[in-house]
């Protein structure tokens, strides 16, 4: 098993993973320690060996070489190491060989495949029990228990330690992955919140200021195109009035955006009680274009709707009047508001549809998008487009119709 990101050296076109520096240290330390013990004549079995003393160096050297690749091919290393440690039992023995084998068992569990990590502890545990029972039956002496304990110390306990460390690493990796996912979801939520807030601010800015700027554009065009002092003076008066009101609306919006306790408290959100003033302002701005305005308010007297519904309805009427002043042909603009207790609030604005004489302000289409978004946030329905006119009226009209729920159970923000 090759470690991810392991560096390699090249020899004749064959790629060999480079050993980890910790593994190199373990291999060198184990080999030097074993050579020191061998040179001092400190063997693990003394004079009970079947082979001469120099043969203990063979398993020692093999085990040190295996330490170099303990992370790269853990299962293969464990199999070869098992053969080496068994062979060491026929030599005078070296404690360094046994210690390095224990490390190979640990590495096989820690760096091996999940299947290897599951099988090695079970296998070494069964071997430890089998060795203990076998020596008890052969020697019939309590010293067999000590042999079983030593076998477990160099095989079973390193495997269990590897399982514990591996589980901790897996848990840490899982926790880190969950933290990264949580951070990613939080960033997505933050981005969506920013986008939603920007859209809300865009709607408010458009609805609050577009009406005044449209009136300014239309009347300034009229003042420039007509060579009449009285008409120009009247247009300049409308321009001044709308510029002052637009500036006040901008200041109120800036006050809402400021995060300072020293600012004045923001003005309350407009309600349907302000429709009369809104229509009166439209009469002042649209009178020179041949437009008349009529309000038909058929709501139940004294009924109060949730603030998001009233704000949405007010803004829809405001934007519809702005569009009528900018684009409608001469004629009547009718605003109808109806609703009863527990019933949806229906807002309808109709205006003459056709070619318009005189100055007109350009449109961007953002107003219709803003109205659709407001209605969608309240789970209502919205329609806007040309329609057949009423009997005795213009042949075609532009009709804006919004149906807003009463919101008895919930009140989402507009």
Task: Give an account of the 3D structure.
The two termini are 58 Å apart. The longest helix is centred in the middle third of the chain and has 70 residues, at 156-225. This protein is of the alpha+beta class. Mean pLDDT is 81; it is low at 1-12, 260-266 and 409-414. It folds into 2 domains: 8-180, no CATH class; 186-404, Histidine kinase-like ATPase, C-terminal domain (Heat Shock Protein 90, 2-Layer Sandwich). The protein has 11 helices and 7 strands. The protein has helices spanning 21-39, 57-68, 74-88, 95-111, 114-139, 143-154, 156-225, 229-257, 275-286, 307-327, 366-377; strands spanning 8-11, 14-17, 291-299, 331-339, 345-352, 381-388, 396-404. A hairpin with a 7-residue loop joins strand 6 (381-388) and strand 7.
Key descriptive features of the protein:
single chain; 414 residues; alpha+beta; Heat Shock Protein 90; 2 domains; 5-stranded mixed sheet; two-stranded antiparallel sheet; 59% helix; rod-shaped; disordered C terminus
């Amino acid at each position: 098993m090759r470690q991810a990101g392991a560096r390699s050296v090249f020899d004749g076109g064959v790629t060999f993973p480079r050993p980890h520096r910790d593994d190199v240290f373990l291999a060198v330390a184990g080999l030097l320690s074993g050579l020191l013990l061998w040179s001092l004549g400190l063997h693990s079995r003394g004079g009970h060996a079947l082979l001469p003393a120099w043969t203990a160096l063979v398993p020692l050297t093999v085990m040190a070489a295996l330490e170099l690749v303990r992370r790269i091919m853990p299962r293969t290393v464990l199999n070869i190491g098992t053969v080496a440690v068994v062979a060491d039992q026929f030599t005078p023995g070296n404690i360094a060989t046994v210690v390095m084998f224990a490390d190979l068992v640990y590495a096989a569990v820690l760096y091996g495949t999940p299947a290897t990590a599951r099988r090695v502890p079970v296998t070494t545990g069964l071997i430890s029990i089998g060795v203990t029972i076998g020596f008890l039956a052969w020697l019939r002496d309590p010293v067999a228990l000590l042999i079983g304990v030593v076998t477990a110390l160099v095989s079973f306990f390193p495997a269990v330690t590897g399982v514990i460390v591996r589980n901790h690493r897996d848990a840490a990796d899982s926790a880190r992955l969950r933290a990264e996912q949580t951070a990613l979801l939080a960033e997505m939520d933050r981005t969506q919140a920013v986008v939603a807030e920007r859209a809300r601010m865009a709607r408010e800015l458009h609805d609050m200021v577009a009406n005044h700027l449209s009136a300014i554009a239309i009347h300034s065009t009229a003042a420039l195109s007509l060579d009449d002092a009285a008409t120009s003076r009247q247009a300049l008066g409308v321009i001044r009035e709308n510029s002052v009101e637009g500036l006040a609306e901008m200041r109120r919006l800036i006050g809402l955006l400021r995060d300072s306790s020293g600012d004045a408290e923001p003005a309350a959100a407009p309600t349907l009680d302000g429709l009369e003033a809104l229509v009166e302002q439209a009469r002042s701005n649209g009178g020179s274009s041949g437009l008349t305005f009529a309000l038909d308010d058929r709501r139940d007297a004294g009924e109060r709707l949730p603030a998001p519904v009233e704000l949405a309805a007010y803004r829809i009427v405001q934007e519809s009047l702005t569009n009528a002043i900018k684009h409608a042909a001469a004629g009547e603009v009718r605003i109808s508001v109806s609703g009863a207790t527990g019933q949806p609030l229906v807002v309808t604005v109709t205006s003459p549809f056709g070619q318009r004489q005189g100055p007109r302000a350009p449109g961007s289409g953002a107003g219709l998008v803003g109205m659709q978004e407001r209605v969608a946030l309240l789970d209502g329905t919205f329609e806007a487009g040309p329609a057949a006119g009423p009997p005795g009226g213009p042949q075609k009209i532009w009709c804006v119709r919004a149906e807003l729920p009463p919101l008895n159970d919930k009140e989402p923000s507009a």
